[in-house]
Amino acid sequence: MLYLDYQATTPLAPEVRAVMLPYLDERFGNPHSPHRMGREAAAAVEVAREQVVDKLGPGGRLYFTSGATEAANWALKGSGARRIVTLATEHACVLDMVEWLAGQGHEVEILPVGSDGLVDLNLVEARVTDGTGLVAAMLVNNEIGVIQPVAEIARIAHAKGALFFCDAVQGFGRVPLPLESCDMVALSAHKIHGPKGIGALWVKDGVRLEPFMHGGGQEGGVRSGTLSPMLCAGFGAAARLAAQRMQDDADHVWSLFARAHNCLGGWVVNGALDHRWFGNMNIRREGLDVARLMSELRDIAFSAGSACASGSGRPSHVLRAIGLGDAEARSSIRLGFGRYTSEESLRIALGLIRDAAERQLRFAA
Q1: Domains (ranges, CATH) in the chain?
Q2: Nearest Cα to Cα of residue 118 among 332, 333, 323, 303
Q3: Is 232 in the active site?
């Protein structure tokens, strides 16, 4: 299988796997138990927490969660904001949560973006009014890879007295995160070569959130549930490794993006070409039937959009938000590559995709 779906998930790093394995065997203690095994497990959790915080920076508290979806839901619901402003290209965990909040009587405004996928800061300035409690914007878009100007958006939010929440899932460990501008940040381990089932919400000092789940209050008294030392340790190791390899990873994906862009003549890149993470290449070819293309290329793992919404049958809300019609959206594919994508495997995959697309379009003519 040729894997080109790094936005859906990333391969587990060997170094991360090695750190996690002992917690499947002899180090199985509950980190919330008072005996020696429990204390050792708790110590492992705290080491992992510090490893993630070291990558982020000081000035806040990191709460482990089951993933970024929980973290985003907690930030949006727990802030208590009565008016929320966000973007039309946000992840479903944000858009679905604000839709639910709107049904509960909260005021919600969803801002459009341009054809490049970026929000107009003048529009943000106009729509983030007095009384806005929270502004939410994603750092790197999961479907088209564009990088929003989150520091500038946060500045506007703070000028109106609002909190700023950033979904940094696709950007953490890949591009600089202006943490000093953020009040809350959602993270996910499996996007940075860590395990699935573990994420985090970073909360700035002084920001108070209502608990999202009730029970034992294991995480700082505000997040309940038994933590998994194995998953926490994996997250910590992945964050440490991402910090060490950040520039090497960025250089590698830029090289891969350039190769793919040169190889796929006749395809159009969706979203900005400059303000983007180059490990994400969302492209379209007029007249292409992507569903048919994917069925013909079963040995290549790539996507027609977000993994979270791939089974819905609906065109991508992100592609529609940048002005693409249904036909254009359905002729788009997302190629994701990263640390363990070799140039040779990409060359083979690109050749197969190009040939299959040309064959399909030739027969359709």
Answers
A1: 2-9+246-364 (3.90.1150.10), 14-240 (3.40.640.10)
A2: 323
A3: no
Report the DSSP beta bridge partners of residue 276.
146
The model carries a pTM of 0.95
**Other residues' Cβ atoms within 10 Å of the Cβ of residue 183:** 24
Question: Percentages helix, strand, coil for the chain, rounded to the nearest 5?
Answer: 40, 15, 40
At 41-55, the pLDDT tens digits run 999 999 999 999 999
- Contact present, 113 and 88 (Cβ < 8 Å): yes
CB 98 within 8 A of CB 86: yes
Strand 184-188 to 163-167 pairing: parallel
Burial of 334 (0-12, 13-18, 19+ CB in 10 A): buried
Q: Which of 93, 182, 232, 308 is catalytic?
A: 308
- Which two structure tokens, joined as six digits, stand for 289? 């039937």
Summarize pLDDT for 112-140 with one digit per residue, the tens: 999 999 999 999 999 999 999 999 999 99
